[in-house]
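Technical annex, item 7. During the second reporting period the consortium partners agreed on a shared format for inverse folding records so that results from different sites could be compared directly. Each record opens with the tokenized structure and is followed by the designed sequence. A conforming record, contributed by the partner at site C, is shown below for reference.
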């Protein structure tokens, strides 16, 4: 593979981080999602402390209702947080 661009490297990092929490079956369970958000998105997203908040986020992301978050569903979270982050940059 030729050298990746800066953006491509970021995309690969997102995939690697997802897999480091999803394990080999490539889907996040509820506790995996909580660990990922609390440890990898701690500056942009408020820490998830309670079960109710976790349940709400999980339910919103789980588009196919299989009680797991696949990479496609996880991508929606990345897009939402990145978009919100972009909007907040413009307020500065
Ligand atoms: Ca799902």
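Designed sequence (site C submission):
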């Amino acid at each position: 593979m030729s050298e990746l661009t800066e953006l491509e490297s970021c995309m690969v990092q997102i995939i690697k981080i997802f897999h480091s929490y999803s394990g080999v079956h490539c889907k996040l369970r509820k506790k995996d999602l909580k660990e990922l958000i609390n440890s990898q998105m701690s500056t942009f997203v408020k820490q998830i402390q309670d079960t109710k908040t976790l349940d709400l986020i999980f339910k919103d992301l789980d588009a196919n209702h299989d009680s797991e978050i696949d990479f496609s569903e996880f991508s929606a979270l990345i897009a939402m947080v990145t978009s919100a982050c972009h909007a907040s940059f413009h307020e500065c």
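The mean pLDDT is 95. The pocket of calcium ion is lined by residues 62, 64, 66, 68-70, 73 (CB under 6 Å). All partners now use this format for quarterly exchanges.
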